[in-house]
Design a protein that fits this description.
- By secondary structure, the chain is of the alpha+beta class.
- The protein has two domains: about 150 residues, 2,3-Dihydroxybiphenyl 1,2-Dioxygenase, domain 1 (Roll), CATH 3.10.180.10; about 150 residues, 2,3-Dihydroxybiphenyl 1,2-Dioxygenase, domain 1, CATH 3.10.180.
- The chain contains seven helices and 16 strands.
- The strands form two sheets. It has an eight-stranded mixed sheet, sandwiched between helices.
- It is globular, with a radius of gyration of 19 Å.
- The protein starts with 7 loop residues before the first helix and ends in a 5-residue tail after the last strand.
- The N terminus is likely disordered.
Length: about 325
């Protein structure tokens, strides 16, 4: 994996145009769509809002897979959306059995709940596989996250998911208004990174997603949450104007684990694509290309949105291998 260092002056130039306006959805590759729909709806309360099959040369070029035929299902929880993608004609590799939370393929969504005890009991009744030992409460010694309760677990494809419960005064104000609901929405997607400063050059400096805060998490609670012995993390939260946040997880101890496989394809089950909306896709594509970033897509792709308008879209990788699907408008 190449590491790119972008000069400060170039960052100013790049950040002046085509910034991200919205994190539209979090895309998750799945192996059995019907099974995944059942899990996310019956266990976690997501509602299906669209179900489409996509194919053709432009989608092949967008996802970098010849001959693809994919089923794309969008599901909503609260105000946030996930996009489940099942590659019907290919189907890639499963998540490795020895994958750890500090590996750079790590990505999850943090699902906000109003009552951690009730949510955890529901997951246990459904026989959901644990990652965390049990739900953990961040101690008072961590001022930024004190009192936050969290629990990691797996979906049927072994993707990491998180339940998170915010005490009063923590998180976005909307999470304090449950209106009788247990599962409320998605606060953020978290990604494993190797270096915070380098990741900020991409997400904040070029994409224009604003840095909102940092915390340094360590101790037995954090180790049992992530299931990484001796875990010590630098966590950085970023947020665009709309949509869920993006959170960096840099493991200071024991350090980053396995690197993101350089031969990853979009149909590999560990592959996620965070979907970002911008005003000018072509401008951002050229800026990223000139800065030396690598792409999943075979160039800048023209697609037709649901209103019949032609728009630009592409998928770019950050320095650690995570993929961002950048689009203009509402193309799946």
């Amino acid at each position: 994996m190449k590491i790119f260092f972008v000069p400060a002056l170039l960052l100013v130039i790049l950040s002046s145009s085509a910034q991200v306006k919205k994190v539209d959805a979090i895309g998750i590759t799945v192996s059995d769509m019907n099974r995944s729909i059942k899990f996310y709806s019956e266990v976690l309360g997501f509602k299906k809002i669209s179900d489409e099959e996509l194919l053709g040369e432009q989608y092949e070029k967008l996802e970098g897979i010849f001959g693809l035929h994919m089923r794309v299902v969008r599901m909503r929880l609260g105000e946030e959306i996930i996009e489940l993608i099942d590659y019907l004609t290919s189907g890639g590799r499963s998540i490795p059995e020895n994958a750890m939370s500090n590996d750079l393929i790590f990505q999850h969504i943090a699902i906000v709940v109003s009552d951690m005890d009730k949510a955890y009991e529901l997951l246990k009744k459904r026989m959901v596989m644990h990652v965390s030992t049990v739900p953990q409460t961040i101690p008072q010694s961590n001022t930024a996250a004190a009192g936050v309760k969290a629990f990691y677990f797996h979906d049927p494809d072994m993707h990491n998911l998180e339940l998170i419960c915010f005490p009063k005064g923590k998180g976005q104000p909307k999470w304090q208004n449950a209106k009788g609901k247990l599962f409320l929405g998605i606060d953020h997607t978290a990604i494993g990174i190797s270096n915070t400063d380098s990741s900020l050059k991409f997400y904040e400096g070029i994409l224009g997603i604003m840095r909102k805060g940092d915390s340094w998490n360590m101790g037995m609670e954090q180790a049992h949450l992530n299931f990484v012995e001796g875990a010590s993390l630098h966590i950085t939260g970023l947020r665009a104007e709309q949509g869920p946040g993006i959170e960096f997880l840099e493991y200071l101890k024991p350090g980053p684990g396995k690197t993101y496989p350089p031969d990853t394809r979009a149909d590999d089950i560990w592959y996620w694509q965070t979907i970002l909306v911008v005003n000018n896709g072509e401008s951002l594509f050229n800026n990223l290309k000139n800065a030396g970033y690598s792409f999943v897509s075979q160039g800048l792709i023209e697609l037709q949105n649901k209103k019949g308008n032609k728009i630009k879209a592409f998928i770019v990788r950050d320095r650690d291998g995570h993929s961002m699907l950048v689009k203009e408008g509402d193309v799946p």
